[in-house]
Structure formats: structure tokens, C-alpha cells
Amino acid sequence: MINQIDKVVIGLVSVPLMKELHLSPSQWGIVGSSFFWFFILSSIILGGMADTKNTKKIFAWMTLTWLAVQFVTPVVSSLSLLVMTRMILGAGEGPTSAVSAAIVGKWFPKQRHGIGASAILFGATIGPAIASPLLISIIDRYGWKSAFISMGIIGLIWLVFWLILGKERPQEMGLSSIPQEALQSSTLPKVSWRQFLPHVFTRNFIFIVLCGGCAYWIATILAFWYPAYFSTVKHFNGQTLKLAVSLPFLFAAICQVGFALVSDWLYRKTGDIRKARVNLAGLTMLLSAICLYFGSVINSSVPSIVFFTLAPGLGIVILSLAPAMLMEFFSPENIGKAQGTYIALSNFASVIAPLVFGYFIQYAANEAMGYRYAF
């Protein structure tokens, strides 16, 4: 939850921050893209470390990076400094999914990997749904800087609890260990990076990366451009703006858990990964594309909010199913490398998406038409 809110708070302050620093839409696109420049590299390096290192300690250092950036961002005074803070935050947040996948592999049997991954993603999506209306109120009352300071304080509180209460494995809480045969389907032994790389070029891995790229594209737009779009093009304010910004995250949270439960149920019933994971992800992405189109061409407020709420929720279902797919192909000893590489490659879409939106918005005949082209 905290990780994702730290990521999306920049979108909530987009209008006042762009005005204060005199940033154009294309420059704002660079700000959005810069978050993922080091994100990709760190997801590979630290994701691979999660296979052998203590994940509790890795998370602690990552969280320290997040909260430090939140406290520093309010004092930035230029585009270059703002880009630097986003790059550092991206480096700290990049390994989150890979480290989380490594933890899921230790704590959940394979037939529960879908719900294990979706529980984490539920936090990532429900967090902004809860926090966005509160942060918008704080921003309106105390200014944009207060949002970052608030998140820095929350991150610091969480870090203290994590250091005291966080555990590495179920056995540390007195729980019984999960039998090895229930932890994995793959018999691939622990391998080095050189031995692992050929697996990146398999058909299954490539298609999961492409699918994840589509999901990260819309997730990035949701976090970075949705608030500005609803404010400047739709002219939403007050409660309407809060609803338009928070509902997509709320629906996405419901989708993450709901479809993961369905997927795990299908997997237990059929034992077929295609029926349980692949077909379900494909269907939801198709529905997402349809909703995104209608949301961009309908001018009426209520239907537009409905379609823009449905689109990201359906589009990112793959993000909870992809770790379960990867765990089917890779053993727990290699899942950090697999997940880290998958996150890194699929997040190239996150690098491109803000730049594309910024270009269209700045150079179209008008701002509304630029958003429509981009969507």
C-alpha cells in the first residue's frame, strides 16, 4: 500500500507542481518516465538477490529509500532535481514485486500462488483508493508538499513495525514448513544468471512480458495522468475528482483478489495453467481495451468515469496472475531472477507511456484531443 501511494502521489500533485515549476506536458512526461529508468535495473539486480539474501533486510533498505525521497521532494526547485528524486524512488521501488514473489514462494503452496500474489497487489491498489481522497484534501488545504511529508512519516512508522515484527519464513512464527513438492512445479535447480538467461527467450516468458507490458502501460497512466486529465479536461473538482481518481484503484483491488480466486479455483479444478491463468488474463485485457476506448470518446461524466474505472482494473489482472505463471515455470530458488527480469522488461512500457502521453497532449490541436489520441 505504502509503496504504491508513494508512486502515485506525484500524479495527485501534478497540476500545482507543474504550475510551480513551469513544466510543459512533455516535460511532465519526462518526470513520469524517469521513475522507471533505475526501476528496471534495480528490479533485476535486487530481484536476483532475493533468491539468496534475507528478504526482510532487503525490504527494510528499500523502504528507507522510499521515505527519504518523500521528505526530500518538497524542497526540489527544478525539473532536473525532480527527475533525480523520481529516479532514486524508482530504484528503491523496482525490486518490490520480485522480492514479494520470493516471499510468496516461501509462504504459499503452488495452488495458492495466485491469491498470494494478488493479496500483495490488493494492497498496492487499495492503498491509493483509500489514500487519494485524503491526500487530495490535504493538498487542497496545506499545499502539494504536505502530501509527500505525510507519506514520509507513514513510511517511517511502517519501517519501525517491519523491523520489529517482520519474519523471513513461516517457521520463524512457529508455523510448519510447506512440503517441497507443494512449493513448486518446476524442477529447475538453482542456477546462475548465465544459466538463467536462455530461459528469458522462451515463448512463454516473452508472452508474459508483453502481456505485463500492456498492464504496466495502463497502470502508469492511471497513476500519473489520470488526475491531471480529470482536473484539466473533465474539469472535475471536489468529491467528483476524488471519486474519479480513487474508484479505478478500488475496482482494481477488487479485480486483483476476485480474479485471482477464480484463477486459483480453476487451477485446482483443472490443473491446466492455460485455462486457469492464460485465458483469464487474455479475456480481461480485451475487456480493458474496449472500456478504455469508450471512456475516451464518451463526453458524459458518469459513463466516462465508469469506463475509466473498469479499464485499468481489468487491464492489470495479469499482474497478479503473472507471478503464479512464472512460479509454474521456475523453482522458488530462481523466482527472484524470473520475476525481476519480467518486471524489468515489461516496465519498458512504463518508461514509454508517460512520454507518449506528454507528446500527444502538448502537440495535438488541443489538450482534450491529445488525451483522446493517447488513450
Give me the secondary-structure topology:
Elements: H1 2-12, H2 14-21, H3 25-49, H4 55-72, H5 79-93, H6 96-107, H7 113-142, H8 145-165, H9 180-183, H10 193-196, H11 203-224, H12 226-232, H13 238-270, H14 273-297, H15 301-315, H16 318-329, H17 335-346, H18 348-363, H19 367-374
Structure overview:
The chain is mainly alpha-helical. The protein has one domain (2-166, 198-374): Growth Hormone, Chain: A, CATH 1.20.1250.20. 79% of the residues lie in helices and 0% in strands. The chain has helices at residues 2-12, 14-21, 25-49, 55-72, 79-93, 96-107, 113-142, 145-165, 180-183, 193-196, 203-224, 226-232, 238-270, 273-297, 301-315, 318-329, 335-346, 348-363, 367-374. It is globular, with a radius of gyration of 20 Å. The two termini are 26 Å apart.
Helicity range of the residues? over 70%
Proportion of residues in β-strands: under 5%
The number of domains: 1
> Structural class given helices, strands, pairing?
mainly alpha
CATH superfamily membership: MFS general substrate transporter like domains
Mean pLDDT: 86
CATH arch. level architecture = Up-down Bundle
Q: Alpha-carbon distance between the termini?
A: 26 Å
Radius of gyration over all CA atoms, rounded: 20 Å
Number of strands: 0
Look at the structure and give the CATH class.
Mainly Alpha
Overall shape:
globular
> What is the helix/strand order?
HHHHHHHHHHHHHHHHHHH
Task: Write the CATH fold name.
Answer: Growth Hormone, Chain: A
Q: How many strands, what sense, and barrel or not for the largest sheet? A: none
Which residues sit in consecutive blocks of at least 5 with pLDDT less than 50? none
Number of helices, counting only DSSP H or I runs of 4 residues or more: 19
